[in-house]
Structure formats: C-alpha cells, structure tokens
Amino acid sequence: MRLRLGTFNVENLLTRHRFEAGGRTETAAAMSLFNFPRADERDAVERSLAVALEDDKRQMTALALAEANADLWMLQEVDSLASLQAFFANYVHRIADHRYGHFTLIDGNDRRSIDIGFAARRDLLAPSQVSVHSYRELSFAEAGAFSPAVAAFGIRPGDRVFARDCLVIALDFGDRELTLFGCHFKSMNNGRDDGRQATLPIRRAEALAVRRLVQERFGAGWRQANWAILGDLNGYRIGLGPLAEPVDEGDSGLEPLLEDFAVDPMTSLPEHERWTHFRRYWSDAQQKLLESHMPLDHILLSPALAAANPKPVIQLIRRGLPYRVPLDPREADRSMGKLALTNDRYPRVGWDRPKASDHCPLTIELTIPKAQGRS
After folding, report:
1. Which domains occur in the chain, in start order?
2. What's phi and psi for 258, nearest 5 deg?
3. Between residues 316 and 37, which one has the greater pLDDT?
C-alpha cells in the first residue's frame, strides 16, 4: 500500500479579523496612512483590504496543497474546524485532483487559538476507520518532561507540556495500520538573537512527551509499528548559510525524537534541499543582517516505516514562497533584481506578501507495511 503524507504550516488560516479587540492586522500599517474620522469607517475599509489580500493568499495556499497532492495532511496554524472545512471547500477543491474529508481539529493550548488540523482523501477511508485523540491536557509531570531548565520559565509540573497539542490520528486499513502524531512545537521567537536557545528546553520537553506517547501506545513493539511524527517542530541542528554552507546550530531540542528513536528521511536529500523556511533578520549581537534556510518542518518515521522505505520520495513545494526568499541557497546573488526576475512562483505572489505561507509543504510517499504485533 502506497500513501503520500504531507505536513504544512499554512500560516494563520483564520476566520477572525483580529486576534483581540484593537489588535493589529497584516494590513493595519498600510491603512494607518489614511485618516478616517470614524473608527467604524476605518475598520470597514481595513476589512475590505484584508479580504482581498487573504483571498489571494489562500488561493496560493491551495495551489501548494494541490501541487503536493498528498493523501493525508497534517496542517498547522488553523483557526477552527469551520475554517479548515471552508478553506478546502472554497479553495482547495476548486483546483485539486482529490476531494478531502475526515476533517479534524481540536482546540489546543495556543494563546492565539491556532491549532493543528487533519484532512484525508475522502475515498481512502470510512469514518469508522479514523480515530482521534488530543493530548492538549498532558502535563510536564505526566510526560516525564519536567526539569530545572523548564522550571526556570516559571512552569510548574502540572502545567500543560504542549504549546499547542499532540493530535494523534489512528488509521485502520484492515490489514495494516498507520498512526500519525501531529505536532506544532514552541516557536523560536524569530527576530531575537537568543530566541532559539532560550526556548529550546520547552521544545525538548515536547519532544520527550511525544516519544513517551509513542512508546506508551505501542509498548515493546514501538519499533515494529507504523507511525510518523508530522509537523512544524520549530527545531533543527543544521541550517544553511550563504552559498548553502551547512551551519551547525547546536542542540535542536529534537534529540529525544532522533536519538535511537525515529528516522528523519530528509537526510537523504542533497544538503541544499533540506529546508522549509527562510529567515532574514538583523543581529544586534553581530550588527549585521543574517540569513538562514532552515528545516523547521518534519516528517519523522518509525523504524519499521523507515526500513520499508529505504529510498522514500520526498517533495518540497516552494512556488508559494514570496520572492524575497532565495529558492536556491547555493545562489550567491541575492539582490532584489536577481530574486524578482529569476524565481518560479505562483501567479500574484508578492515580494513579501501575498504568499501561500512562510513555510513550504513537505510530503513523502511511503509503502505502508503490514502491522507487526502492536501491543
């Protein structure tokens, strides 16, 4: 049995105009150029502009999903189940080869209420073959993930370990099973020089928690079971600097998932292809602009799945990224003229926005072996 699995941070797939009363939106800075004597007039114009930009953006997000053509999707930064269903009905299904269903989203712990969503081809499974469980309530203590480094954040043992959730989707295909662990780990606070290291203990705790959930679910047979961990894990060890030079960034926080546990199939790609996100920021410490192509998004395979797929087919869809992102990290010329004229993008992609997302979708095509003794 062959399946294509995909993960994609769709970047704020929202139905809300603002996160909170008085909050700023993507278009607020542009609208501040105009003077509206009445707040309701300003808000109405702002909404109109936001709708136009969002429509372009979501067409591009749908194009990326359609091009990736996955059978199963784990999506991050989705506002609600209604948003997820409306997006597929009004955007994805207008252009995609598949029709998706089995939509799942459970409200997690994110303060902005951006959650993890799941979708699968409608013709792949019956509803009775899909079971769902959320671990949003799991505590640091219950996960065996509390430590002095975590306590330094003011966190208590009984606090929730997942910044968002670990959404577990179990799929029963009759003669074989596949269990997906959907995650969106703590962010690195982009824009801060120390953000990555400062938040690393939280991601390590989340990784420990996922490892424990896998081992508790499958017991002694966890190595032989078919499972995968998918999502924006916000962690990596090797990034790509100028000219695609590998840069060892030190511990990632994902070590509990990668050391004698899951297998990262992205290591089979050429080094310059191993990235899903681009960051360009000013470093106060070094007093200069820094750039990095980073592998923030992951599909990690169980030992059994990895053994059954020694040469997996991996695809990264980058045509929805904005023009400011160098699609080939090896390219030395990163001037605006070069980037604006030579990169392959979807129609109406902008320099910074609109865009499909600030991440690119990652898919992998796998043979799913028959189950071997789940405990």
Report:
1. 2-367 (3.60.10.10)
2. -110, -20
3. 316
